[in-house]
Write a structure and sequence with these properties.
The chain is α+β, with helices and mostly antiparallel strands. The protein is built from 5 helices and 5 strands, in the order βααβββαβαα. The longest helix has 15 residues.
Length: 161
């Protein structure tokens, strides 16, 4: 009944609706400022920036994983960054998240990646337990740094001439 498949351009509206559902779950709906059209361009345009796989339960798409390549200087090799992994609440507990993560892990291995990394919100104890149960190490000494919006504009403008 469960199938994991590579997303196609026809799936963009569905993926975008899942992104909105993820944002609502994380209480971050206000952070979704992009559009389905931009997502389609980024996934399937002339220079794709990311990839997505979908979890399909029967006829329904019920989850997704979106990821992109990275590079590790310490490993001197490629990696994958898992940006989002999400399963609709009504479908949790059926092994769908595990199947999505396993699929992305297999892709990382096939591509010769030395690591698969992602971030998890510190309050999401269920996700942390799930990831640790899948063999992930939650790194206690690392924090995500982000510069965006006006701060990014200011940073870029501060370059020496």
């Amino acid at each position: 009944m469960l199938a994991i498949r590579t997303a196609t351009p026809d799936d963009v509206p569905t993926i975008f609706s899942l992104i909105q559902a993820l944002a609502a779950y994380e209480k971050l709906s206000h952070c979704v400022t992009g559009t389905a059209a931009q997502l389609g361009q980024d996934l399937f345009g002339p220079r794709p920036l990311a990839e997505a796989v979908l979890a399909q339960w029967g006829e329904d798409v019920v989850g997704f994983a979106l990821f992109f390549p990275t590079y590790s200087t310490f490993l001197t090799g490629p990696g994958l960054h898992l940006e989002d992994l999400f399963v609709l609440p009504d479908y949790r507990g059926r092994g769908i998240g595990r199947a999505l993560l396993t699929h992305v892990g297999a892709l990382a291995q096939e591509r010769g990646c030395g690591r698969l990394e992602w971030a998890v919100l510190d309050w999401n104890v269920g996700a942390i337990a799930f990831y640790e149960g899948m063999g992930a190490t939650v790194l206690p000494d690392w924090r995500i740094c982000r510069v965006e919006g006006e701060a990014l504009d200011q940073l870029a403008a501060s370059l020496p001439v």
